[in-house]
Amino acid sequence: MKLRHLVPLAAAVFAIAPVAAFATDGLGAVQAAVAKAQSDYTAAYKSAEADMNKVITDAQVSPAVKATIKGDLQQLKSDRQASRSVLQADRAAVKSAVQAARDAKVPKADIQAAVKPLRDQMKSQRDELKGLREKMRAALQALRK
């Protein structure tokens, strides 16, 4: 093979290599944003779960102490408000990382595979919190009777 045939081939390889590296970085940014969102969502979930369980326990054990239950409900509300801004920032970070990955021509299947664990985790934890919320409401309704 002559040198004049190898030069364009080498130029093409070196031109494509940075694009492939950038696409990997785009996917890496998505994965990093998803990992941060997962950890923050897990922290918010555990906080809400603990607060709801405390309300349920206090409602069943000491129904006469309404001040304790009100304090527990206030704690649940303040924890929820505190975690909301963090989760909104995480959502925006994931959204912008996904958009940057799309702009970098990262394959759609790779982006979806990177985001799927977050979606699955959020769905399962949301369902668990929904069940706890129903138990909490039932315990509070039992107090009113």
Helix/strand layout:
Layout (H helix, E strand, L loop, with lengths): L2 H59 L4 H38 L4 H37 L1
Helix pairs in contact: 1-2, 1-3
Give a short synopsis of this structure.
The protein has 145 residues and is mainly α.
Summarize the structure in words.
With 145 residues, the protein is mostly helical. It contains 3 helices and no strands. The protein has helices spanning 3-61, 66-103, 108-144. Helix 1 (3-61) packs antiparallel against helix 2 (66-103) and helix 1 runs parallel beside helix 3. It is elongated, with a radius of gyration of 25 Å. The model is unreliable at 5-23 (pLDDT under 50).
Give the tags.
mainly alpha, 3 helices, 145 residues
Secondary-structure element sequence?
Answer: HHH
What does the average pLDDT come to?
A: 85
Helix content: over 70%
What's the shape? elongated
Rg (CA only): 25 Å
Task: Write down how many β-strands occur, each being a DSSP E stretch of 2 or more residues.
Answer: 0
Oligomer: single chain
Major beta-sheet overview: none
Uncertain spans = 5-23
Termini distance? 91 Å
- The share of residues in extended strands comes to under 5%
